[in-house]
């Protein structure tokens, strides 16, 4: 796969009331949930969602997640999460940027890393399985 044509998706999320504190600001722990929603949409787009992962014999746990908060997300705010494939040969690393949908202002940057784990043995794979490479190549 050519790194100049990396796969990217965009996900819209409206910050719900139950995610905010008394000041109307989204609790920092909910950002992980927003990244998960965007990651699931990304995986659906490449045809390798969590069901497909399991069917292919692999589990893909998150091994690293880093979030940089720039500005708070607020109740009822519509945000656009841009998810981009960053690495895929030895792990699945996705980068995220969260923007305010109305103003385009950047609110947050993050990344997650997942590794393939053999579903039968529980052993971590030191390179991504061919099934992931094939799915990414078809996109």
From TrEMBL:
InterPro entries: 4-hydroxybenzoyl-CoA_TE, HotDog_dom_sf, YbgC/YbaW
GO molecular-function terms, A-Z: fatty acyl-CoA hydrolase activity
Key words of the record: Hydrolase
One Pfam assignment: 4HBT_2
Family membership: Belongs to the 4-hydroxybenzoyl-CoA thioesterase family.
Name of the protein: Thioesterase family protein
Organism name: Teredinibacter turnerae (strain ATCC 39867 / T7901)
